[in-house]
Structures are given as C-alpha cells and as structure tokens.
Design goal:
Layout: H1 9-48, H2 52-86, H3 93-132
Helix pairs in contact: 1-2, 1-3
C-alpha cells in the first residue's frame, strides 16, 4: 500500500469520497435503528395498554423500517470493503460509527425480545379468558341441527 506522500491527488479525492459516502450510509443506518427503537418502545406501551390498533400500526412501521435497514445494509457492505481496501490502517470515525451502530442494534434486539415476551404473556392471558367463557348453549342441540327424522310423504289437500 502506498504511503500518504506517494498518493496522487485523484487517489486522495477517491479515498475522501469513499470515506464520506461510508459515513453518510452509517449515519443513515444509525438513524433508521434509532427510529426502529422508538417504534419498538411505543409498541411496548401499546402492548401494555392493550391497544390492538396501535400495535398493528407499529408492526407495519416496523416492517417498513426493517426493509429500509436491509436496503441500506446492501449498500454499506460493498462500501465498507472499498473503505477497508483504500484505508487499511484507519481506525477513525468510521469505526466509531460502526461501534455505535452495533450498540443500537443490540438495544433494538433487546427491546424486540422484551415486546415479544409481553405479547406472548398477553396472548396466554387472552386464551385463558376465552377458555373461561361459558357458552349458554354448550351441550344443547341447535334447532338447525340435522335430525334423523326426515319426512318421506307430503299430504297436500286443496
């Protein structure tokens, strides 16, 4: 690898452009994870309040944000390889951004697991409530149920 004195102006400009683009992508990814964490925290409140409509809304937002995160990640991976190739000895801001991003990812996973457990607990409670419901018609036959007695003759008088 060339030292900084051996680099041409074009090579330096390319490296700077790669670094800037990489930082922008990492920042965008970090913002998406923060947005995702906010949605998960709001979803937790909705779960506690048993607000089904809000839970569904948060789930839709969650799907969209996850899709955006994966799209950005598809661009980050090749940019990271280019960055590592052009700046093998650099341990600066890009590394700090990646570390911050990893922390956010961990927080998102923890919050997601917390929400999942709360939803599971809530579902178990609902199932118990449903099982506890007693139907007044249990064991009784319906007037619409099929009977074995079927008419075979009809008497029509005019």
């Amino acid at each position: 690898m060339k030292t900084t004195e051996d680099l041409s102006n074009d090579e330096i400009k390319k490296r700077v452009a790669i670094l800037k683009r990489f930082k922008v992508l990492l920042n965008r990814q970090r913002e998406k994870f923060r947005e995702y964490l906010d949605v998960l925290q709001a979803q937790e409140i909705s779960i506690e309040n048993e607000n089904i409509d809000a839970i569904l809304e948060h789930t839709e937002l969650e799907k969209n944000i996850i899709s955006e995160i994966y799209t950005i990640q598809k661009v980050i991976d090749p940019m990271e390889e280019m960055y590592k190739y052009t700046n093998p000895n650099d341990n600066g801001q890009a590394i700090e951004l990646k570390t911050d991003l990893k922390k956010l990812q961990t927080m998102v996973l923890e919050q997601n697991e917390k929400n999942r457990k709360k939803l599971k607990t809530h579902m178990v409670g609902l199932r118990k409530q449903i099982d506890a419901l007693k139907t007044p018609y249990k064991g009784k036959t319906s007037v619409f149920a099929e009977s074995n007695e079927t008419a075979s003759m009809i008497d029509i008088q005019v």
